[in-house]
Amino acid sequence: MTTTMIATMVLCFALSVSVAVSIGLASILGIQVTNANMLISAKEMFNSINKFPLAAIPFFILAGNLMETGGISRRLVEFAKSIVGGVQGGLPMTCVLTCMIFAAVSGSSVATTFAIGAILIPALIKHGYPTSYAAALQATSAELGVIIPPSIPMILYGVSAEVSIGELFIAGFGPGILISLALMLFVWVYCKWKGWGKTDGEGRMPFGRALWQAGWALLMPVIILGGIYGGIFTPTEASAVAVFYALIVGMVIYREIRFADLFAILRKSVLSSAVIMFIIANAGLFAFLITRAGVPDAIGHWLQEVLKSPAMFLLGVNAALFIIGMFIETSAAIIVLAPILAPVAVHFGIDPVHFGLIMVVNLALGMITPPFGVNLFAACTVARISLDRIVKHLIPFVLVILACLMVITYVPWVSLALRDLVYAR
User: Fold this and answer.
1) Is residue 32 part of a domain?
2) Which spans are transmembrane here (predicted)?
């Protein structure tokens, strides 16, 4: 059964069949090979999405779309530009900083790409940056959407590996800030070297004025994250609060969302949510079948035999996840692999929260690596260029994040220091 499933999935990938359909077809054929009851497929697909924490996914997607339409993202850009936009290369730094702030509410890298990219990619091009560089920068910066909490992949890892989502969220701040600072330092040095961005400070608002205009937007992550860590509401409930807050700010305070806009916003959110949920349902069925076949235990024993130390295990897992992330969507990869790898990591004495951050950061790289990087497609759509044109500028960004990944992997306190501080009380 396992051989049939894997062979079918690989063949479908080679034929450019979508990830969700590939996994679903492989699972159906696996059931057929064992002559099991086909009702298993419906039952397990339903069980995969019938989990309360997953309700946060459509709400965070809707909140991100409301922020984009309601003027919140534009004000965050102006605020970030008022902080770092005055130096050479300030506009690319603004892109990174804005994505970092926007990520503290949206939970989705694709939503971050569209919401921030629609504003900053044209601005970067206007200031003389190559279109391909602007698209590569935006795609990379938007990766922070799944690393800075709240994060949809962290929710999926928490559900799949039975790890506290609250702990994962607070552990995500260290890696997210590390990657943000590394990217900002890199783009500053790179722009100095290239001679780009000497006019980036033009049109920059004074800090006080930008802060005043973005006040309601900046209050949003404070309420959401403060409510989660203050014990006022759960991460799932926080997603609903985010929607309500974005709606009130967009319609009543900023008055940039009209009733006529709501249908388009809801339609866009439903379509995005349906795609993710379909992937989760099919990946859940696939994970159930390979678990029932004993594959996780077999892989776990094999890894323990081959990789004798925690350091070697983490190196092997990072290499495997980097390759897997190029071809399999992040959500599907987490749902399938987390139940397999997390117990092995615990066997090696690795904290499951730390391991979760390693998985999320590594697989998030798949969002900006060809051939199936969703952030790349989103950024290319906004910039109106082909994928092959941005690869040249993309490689340095990938190397920067890989360097950060190694730090996150082998320096656990980057992820766990804040978690231990908060949950030790």
Assistant:
1) no
2) 6-31, 52-71, 91-121, 133-156, 168-190, 211-232, 238-257, 269-290, 310-328, 333-350, 356-382, 394-413
Task: Say if 124 falls within a structural domain.
Answer: yes
Q: How far apart are CA 312 and CA 306, in angstroms?
A: 9
Q: Is the four-CA dihedral 184, 189, 194, 200 of positive or negative sign?
A: positive
Rounded CA-CA distance 130/385 in Å is 11
Is residue 256 predicted with pLDDT exceeding 80? yes
Helix, strand, coil percent values for the chain (each to nearest 5) = 80, 0, 20
Shortest CA distance to 328 belongs to which of 52, 109, 12?
12
pLDDT of residue 397: 92
- Considering the domain boundaries, does residue 291 fall inside one? yes
Total tally of structural domains belonging to the chain: 1
pTM given for the model: 0.79
pLDDT (tens digit, 9 = 90+) per residue, 262-294?
999 999 888 877 877 887 788 778 878 877 777
Residue 375 lies in a domain: yes
* Spatial distance between the Cα atoms of 268 and 68, rounded to a whole number of angstroms: 12
Residues 6+ apart with CB under 8 A from 221: 101, 104, 105
CA distances from 365 to 40, 87, 370 (A): 33, 28, 10
Nearest of 101, 91, 185, 89 to residue 403 by alpha carbon:
185
Task: Look at residue 299 in the predicted model and tell me its pLDDT.
Answer: 67
**Residue whose entry in the numeric block shows the structure tokens 């919401």:** 115
Instruction: Give the CA distances from residue 70 to residues 12, 76, 137, 423, in Å, rounded to whole numbers and listed in that order.
Output: 40, 12, 24, 35
pLDDT of 107 reads 66
**Token pair recorded at residue 126:** 């206007």
Over pLDDT 70: what percentage of the chain? 96
* Distance (Å, whole) CA 4 – CA 34: 10
**Nearest one of 327, 338, 359, 329 to 110, comparing CA atoms:** 329
The mean pLDDT of 235-249, rounded to a whole number, is 86
**Residue 74 belongs to domain spanning:** 37-423
What residue type is assigned to position 238 of the chain?
A: A
